[in-house]
Structures are given as C-alpha cells and as structure tokens.
Amino acid sequence: MSREDGQRRSGGPGGDRHGGQGRGGQGRSGNGRDGQGRGGQGRGRDQHGHERSGSRGSGGPRRGWSQQRPSERRGRTTGSRLVAFEGLRTVREDDAYANLVLPQLLRRHRLPGRDAAFTTELFYGSLRAQGRLDAVLAACIDRDLEDVDPDLLDVMRLGAYQLLDMAVAPHAATSETVALARQEVGAGAASFANAVLRRVGERTLEEWLEEVAPDRASDETGHLAVRHSHPRWVVRALSDALAGHGRDRSEIDALLAAQNAAPAVSLVMRPGLTDLDELIDEGASRGHLSVFGAAWPSGDPGGMDVVKQGRAAVQDEGSQLMALALALGADDLVTADDAHWLDLCSGPGGKTALLGGLTVDHDADLLALELQPHRTELVDRAVATLREAGCEIETRTGDGTAIGAQMPGRFSRVLADVPCSGLGALRRRPESRWRRSPGDIGHLGALQRDLLGSALDATAPGGVVAYVTCSPHLAETRLVVADVLRRRDDVEQLDARPAVRAGILPEEQEAAELGEGPSVQLWPHVHGTDAMFIALLRRTPSEEGPKAS
User: Is 391 designated active site?
Assistant: First the structure.
C-alpha cells in the first residue's frame, strides 16, 4: 500500500491510507511521455472573473502586480470552480493528498449540495484526466506546456475537463473558466485561456483522442497512456501485473478505466460497537464484499453519529478484507500461543481498529507500531472508542525494521502493511500517478524486504504474518515474498484464499475471484475494491533462522 512517505523505515498509509508523497507538483503525461512532476508557484481564488491589471508571460515576472495573491488584494466570491482551482493548486504546490484537501475546502467554503457535487467531480476528474487533458491542450498551444504559468495551466485543465468530460454547456464552461483565469492570473492570461478553450471546444473528446493518442497498433502503451490518462510506465507495470498475477493482459483497458472511475464510499463497522441496522438507519446500505462493510450513497459520511463517535469509519472494502484475513481467516493457521498481535505499520489506524476490535474474541492484545509520532496520534484516535470498550490496544512510536530484533518471536499474528507505490489506489489518490516514478519501486522494494524480514523475526514459531500492499506491481508483491522465502528456511507460504474468503459475505464467497493462489490480488475492475495484495507466511521452527544472503 502506498505510504505517505516511501522513504520512511516503517509506518505510513496502508490500504485505507494510500498514495505517496510526491516530488514536485503536477507532471505531464500524454504526447507519449511519462508524467514527471515539476514545481510551480500558485495563487488565487474564484470563478466569477473580477477584472485585474497585469499579465503573465511564459515564466517571466508579473508586471504591475503586488506580492500578494490576487484574491488577497481584492474581495473574492467563492464558487465551485474556485474551490476546484484552489484544490489543484494546493495539491501541486504542497504535494498534498487530494482526498484530504477537498473535504477541507468544501467545509471552508460551505458549498451547498449541488455545488459541492460539481466541485468534487471537477476536481477529481481533472486530476485523473490530467494526462490526456495536457495532450489536448498541447495540441492547442504553440509552446511547451512547461512554459505555461502553472496556475493558468490548472485553470485551463478545469475548463478543458468541463468541455470534454462534463455535461456543462460550452459557453458556460468557457466563459466561467476565462473569468477564473482573469481573476486569478490576469487579463492577459484570460485572453490566452479564451483562445485555447475555444479550440478545445471545437471537437469532442473522442475526436481529440483520435488526433492526440498514438496509434494502438504501433504504440499500444502510448495509446493507452493518453486515452486512459496514466503515465507510460504505470501502463506497462499494470499490464505486467495482470499477467504476473494470473490474469490476462487484455484486461488492461478495463483496469485503467476502473482506476479513472470515482470510487464508492465504503464504511467499516467497528467490531462490537455497531451493526448494519444502525448504519442503515443513518442512510447507509449493506456493502458488497466485507462482512464488516457498508456502503454510503455519496458525499461525506462524517456527519453520521456512528462515525463521529468512532464506531464506524470510512475504509475501502479491500482494505478491510486484508485485516480480516489475518484476524478471522488465520484461526486455523496459527499454531502458536495466540495472545499477542502486532500491526507493524499502523498509521493512520484503519486496519488497526479492525484488528483491535477482533482481539476480544481471541483474548489477545494488540501492539500498533508507527514510525511517525503524528501518525501514532492518528492511530490513537482511531482506536479510542475500542479502548473505552475494553480492547487491549497499545500504540507505540518505533521503527518497524527493528522490532524483530527488539521483540523476537513474541507475536502470533503480524500485519505487515508495508509502504508501497500505491498503484492499487489510483482511483482514490489520482494525483499519485503523476508523482511516482519507476525509480521509487526499487527503493520501496528494499524497505519492504526489511519490514517483512523484521515481521517474521518478531513472529513466534507457528505464528502467521500477513504481508499486504496496495499495489499489484510484481516488484512489490510476489517478488518480495519470493525473495524473502528464498533467504529463509524458517518460513512457509500458506494459501491466503480461504483466509480472505472468511471476511467475505457468505453469499459472495463462492463468486469471489481470488485467483490461483497462494497469494491473493484484488482488482478494481473485478472486485470493485482497491488493488490490494496479501500473502500469508507462517514461521516454522528452525535452528538456523534466516539464511545468509
């Protein structure tokens, strides 16, 4: 699963916390390029087009502008396009997570329901479609996009997305976007945006793709990269992952399309603290896979009493199944004394809370380890209600790669939910596809091996480790497991499929496609979840322990 910082030694976002820190803002894809980031200064607010003096050229200084942002010099009016623009700018300038930025902006600007829905579609859609939007914009601009003011480029992406992907009248999409450019960047920028967007609006999306996407027969990767708005290297990696996990490469179109679809909001019921009937009374419905899952129709469920009280939370059902495979499905696999469980990389606490709630039935305690102090605080908040209910959950700030040496052979169940590229959660973290690069995979692989090795060292003979990622990339999944197994003679891999099925609704268990085993890879286009991976490893008695590498 992707982590907030892949260069950490442990901790970070897991299945319910995916996406990695970026390296410099929005990147490019399309035109056959891998999308790599670049920095950029940002400024501004609204869509209503207050006149402003000054203009901005291609990267040069402003003329006649104060050091303040336009919206700080003059009054502003909030609106949907403004909020979407502010969100794009924040994601680009601060390497912020889109799914954290937008809720804060919606609350701050207090947009009503329809406006909030419009903003959400525009913001997330523009991030997902950035690669092909840039390919279209590049065809309409006589300069490299890297020479366009970053704020102006964000504004034009919003306008192009309205014209090509949303049911917005062309006149409204263009005029409102030009007004936003005038207010936030300047009059000259507004004229430039007007000319570009009028060209964009001359064709439909399909007509543009016919022009800007490479021919599939001669350049399939480039074609898919533009059409589905993913960097080339991601397209290649996901195609290889399909084949490596026993599926057909021909599914790549469906997988990429699923990662561009807005995901449904999934809720998790904290064990022993609520039930489906209560969630239904508050507007939810039954989930489609997890026995502890529920579905929320749309919008932010944070106003529900059960969520505010910590008895339920937002969590992808695939993420839930990873924790449930260890907490429910491993009962017949664990032969060690089953008193102590470990969550190796616990922040921000979604899986920790699910594991912690199920320790009661096993008369066990849970240690939740997290490298970053501020993320340990998030874990504390996630499990606070469970602690009040009597669950024995200890949180600790510490290095996951060292726990095996510090507490060897102590735990019967260990969740190693390791930092990863987050390629399995691109539908929830659309910005991460433009931030990651192939070079990240090698660095993360070394960390993943260290964490898995430490997890196994901390496991008692007869205990089980669940190695989990939110990435289907072979170098982060099967190859890590194979390498660790090759280096040790005290570990055996178990069939994870029955364990995963134990967390699936009974009526859905037979229909669930869990592959040929022994590991399980979930897919957005098959299971409707993030692309979670799990391998179950059992520590066996050995006089020798790890082999020399």
Answer: no
